[in-house]
Design a protein that fits this description.
The chain is an alpha/beta fold. It folds into 2 domains: 117 residues, Alpha-Beta Complex (Aspartate Aminotransferase, domain 1); 236 residues, Type I PLP-dependent aspartate aminotransferase-like (Major domain) (Aspartate Aminotransferase, domain 2), CATH 3.40.640. The strands form 3 sheets. It has a 7-stranded mixed β-sheet, with helices on both faces. Helix 11 runs parallel beside helix 13. The longest helix is centred in the C-terminal third of the chain and has 18 residues. The relative contact order is 0.18. The protein binds 4'-deoxy-4'-aminopyridoxal-5'-phosphate (PMP) and glutamine (GLN). Glutamine binds next to loops. Keywords: Aminotransferase, Pyridoxal phosphate, Transferase. Pfam families: Aminotran_1_2. This is Putative 8-amino-7-oxononanoate synthase.
C-alpha cells in the first residue's frame, strides 16, 4: 500500500505516554484523569447491563440521553436545543469532529484552523482531500487576530474550526471573539465547527460562551462535546455533536455509516447520571484547586507560568531551566532525567515552531501532583 498519509506518525500523546510508561515517569503528558469516576456513574453502567440494555442504540443516540443533554444545556447556559433533531451521540468528541468535517468538506475545499490546534483536526481535513489553512496564535495569551482569520478566507474556504476553551492554549473566547467569528462566517457564508469539550473547565469565575449561544453562529455551527472530560471517563469514548436541524440531518447521514450508533449501556448510565442534580457542577472549582496546586509547584521549580484560564492543562516556559533544549528534547529530557512527562506545545503547530513551552496535565490525584512537584523540586 502506498501510504495515503506519509506525513502522519504516532500522536504526541501516544508517544509521551509510552515514554512515561517505559521510564516509570509520572505521566502529566496525555490529558486524562488518574482518579475514579463517580461511583453512581459506575453503578449506572452495571444497572444498564443487568437491565439488558445490550443491543444497538438508535442511530442518533438514546432519546433519554439526548433529552438529558438538552436539559443540561438549558440549566447550565439557558440554551434551547432540540434533542430530537439537533443532538447526535458520538464515539467521543473525536468521531464528532471527524464526522462534522467529513459532512462539510469536499476535495479541494479549504478549512481554517487556529494554531496551536488539537491534533485531530488537520488529518481529518486532509482525509477529505481538503486543505487545512492555518492561522497561528502566539503565547502567552494566544489571542485570535480576527483580521488574520478574515485574510485567510479564499473562495474555496468552507469551514472555520475553533476550540473554545482551547487545548493546549487554555484560552477562552470572549463575546467579542464570537462576534468577530460570526461576522466572518456570515460575510463569506462559512460553517463553523466549535470543539467545546472543556466547556465546564473554566476558571477564576469566567464564563464559557458557546457558539450555540450566538444568534448568528447558531444556524451555521456544529458544536462538539465529550463525556470523557465532564465525567472523568476519557476511556468511555462517548461524546455528542449539536447543530441546527438542517446541518444535523447531513451529519447523521455520515454518522450512520461511520459507527451507526455508540455503546448502549454507557448511554443509559450517562443519561441517568446527567439527571442527577450537580453531576456536572463543581467541576471548575475542583480543577481550579488542582491547577493552583500544580502551578505553585511548577513555579517553585523554576518554570515561568503562562495563564491557565481553562481546560485541565498548565503551560509553562522552561527557558530559565534549559534554554538550550527545544520543546520535544526538553519534554524527553524531563521525562527521562526527572521522571515527569509533559507535552511539547510545538506538536500543535504544523511547522513545529518552538516557544520553549510545555504542557502539564493537572487532572490528577493530589498524591500524583505532589509526587511530580517533589521530583521537579530537584531541577535547580
Ligand atoms: N478535542 C480536544 C480539544 C481534546 O482535548 C480532546 C481530548 N483530548 C478531544 C477533542 C477528544 O475527545 P474524545 O476523547 O471524547 O474523543
Ligand atoms: N486530548 C488529550 C490531550 O490533549 C489526548 C487524547 C489522545 O490521546 N488522543 O492530551
Amino acid at each position: 500500500l502506498q501510504s495515503k498519509f506519509p506525513d502522519l506518525g504516532l500522536t504526541i500523546f501516544s508517544r509521551m505516554s509510552a515514554l512515561a510508561a517505559e521510564t516509570g515517569a509520572i505521566n502529566l503528558s496525555q490529558g486524562f484523569p488518574d482518579f475514579a469516576c463517580d461511583a453512581a456513574l459506575l453503578n449506572g453502567v452495571n444497572a444498564a447491563l443487568q437491565a439488558g440494555h445490550n443491543q444497538y442504540a438508535p442511530m442518533p443516540g438514546l432519546p433519554l440521553l439526548r433529552q438529558a443533554i438538552a436539559h443540561k444545556f438549558e440549566a447550565s447556559a439557558g440554551l434551547l436545543v432540540d434533542p430530537e433533531r439537533e443532538i447526535t451521540i458520538t464515539a467521543g468528541a473525536t468521531q464528532a469532529l471527524y464526522t462534522a468535517i467529513g459532512t462539510v468538506l469536499r476535495a479541494g475545499d479549504e478549512a481554517i484552523i487556529l494554531e496551536p490546534a488539537y491534533d485531530s483536526y488537520a488529518p481529518a481535513i486532509v482525509a477529505q482531500g481538503a486543505v487545512p489553512v492555518r492561522v497561528s496564535l502566539a503565547p502567552p495569551h494566544f489571542a485570535v487576530d480576527w483580521q488574520a482569520v478574515a485574510a485567510a478566507v479564499t473562495p474555496r474556504t468552507r469551514l472555520i474550526i475553533v476550540n473554545n476553551p482551547n487545548n493546549p492554549a487554555t484560552s477562552i473566547f470572549s463575546r467579542a471573539d464570537l462576534d468577530a467569528l460570526a461576522g466572518i462566517a456570515e460575510q463569506h457564508d462559512l460553517l463553523v465547527l466549535s470543539d467545546e469539550v472543556y466547556e465546564h473547565l473554566v476558571f477564576d469565575g469566567q464564563q464559557h460562551s458557546s457558539v450555540l449561544s450566538h444568534p448568528q453562529l447558531r444556524p451555521r455551527s456544529f458544536a462538539v462535546y465529550s463525556f470523557g472530560k465532564t465525567f472523568h471517563a476519557t476511556g468511555w469514548k462517548v461524546g455528542y455533536c449539536v447543530a441546527a436541524p438542517a446541518l444535523m440531518a447531513e451529519f447523521r447521514k455520515l454518522h450512520q455509516y461511520l459507527v451507526f450508533s455508540v455503546s448502549t449501556p454507557m448511554q443509559h448510565a450517562l443519561a441517568a447520571h446527567l439527571q442527577l442534580a450537580a453531576s456536572w457542577q463543581g467541576l471548575a472549582v475542583f480543577y481550579q484547586q488542582k491547577r493552583d496546586h500544580l502551578a505553585a509547584g511548577l513555579q517553585a521549580a523554576g518554570f515561568t507560568l503562562l495563564p491557565s484560564a481553562a481546560t485541565y492543562f498548565q503551560l509553562v516556559d522552561y527557558s530559565a531551566i534549559r534554554p538550550d533544549l527545544g520543546e520535544l528534547a526538553f519534554a524527553e529530557w524531563l521525562t527521562r532525567e526527572h521522571g515527569v512527562a509533559s507535552i511539547p506545545v510545538s506538536a500543535f503547530y504544523a511547522d513545529g515552531r518552538d516557544h520553549h513551552i510545555v504542557r502539564f496535565c493537572f487532572a490528577k490525584q493530589q498524591q500524583t501532583l505532589d509526587a511530580a512537584i517533589s521530583r521537579l523540586a530537584g531541577l535547580r
